[in-house]
Amino acid sequence: MLEKAYRDGRISREAYESNLAKLGIARPPDGRRAALRRAFDEGKITRAIYARNLTAQLGVAGDPAGRALTKAFVDGKIDADLFEKNLSRLRGP
């Protein structure tokens, strides 16, 4: 929820990082996955491109459940947060 507020621009980066520290949560890595999500949130890439790249990064592109999730996301049936969460579950720990 805190991350979504930050991504939506409702809180500043400083407030986001301060709250993470107060809660004892490590700041998420600002890597390729985060950059991909930012590009999607800013409208720089389409749902289909975001889905294709995210499934490739997580290594679930060939998984039948991953393909079903991708179709649901591209068709607008699930949002990006749920899409990421479910793909991460497919990947495992």
What does this protein look like?
This protein is mainly α and 93 residues long. The chain folds into two domains: 1-29, no CATH class; 31-93, no CATH class. Helices cover 67% and strands 0% of the residues. It has helices at 2-7, 13-23, 32-41, 47-58, 64-74, 80-91. The longest helix has 12 residues, at 47-58. The two termini are 21 Å apart. The model has no long low-confidence stretch (mean pLDDT 87).
Task: Summarize the model shown.
The protein is an all-alpha fold.
DSSP helix fraction: 55-70%
- From the spread of the alpha carbons, the general shape counts as globular
Query: Quick one: biggest sheet?
Result: none
Low-confidence region ranges: none
In the residues, how many domains can be counted? 2
What's the count of strands?
A: 0
Counted by DSSP, the helix tally is: 6
Mean pLDDT rating: 87
Rg over CA atoms: 14 Å
| Protein structure class | mainly alpha
How far apart lie the N and C ends?
21 Å
Order of helices and strands: HHHHHH
Strand content: under 5%
Reconstruct the topology from this structure:
Layout: H1 2-7, H2 13-23, H3 32-41, H4 47-58, H5 64-74, H6 80-91
Helix pairs in contact: 3-4, 4-5, 5-6
Identify the notable features of this structure and list them briefly:
93 residues; mainly alpha; 2 domains; globular
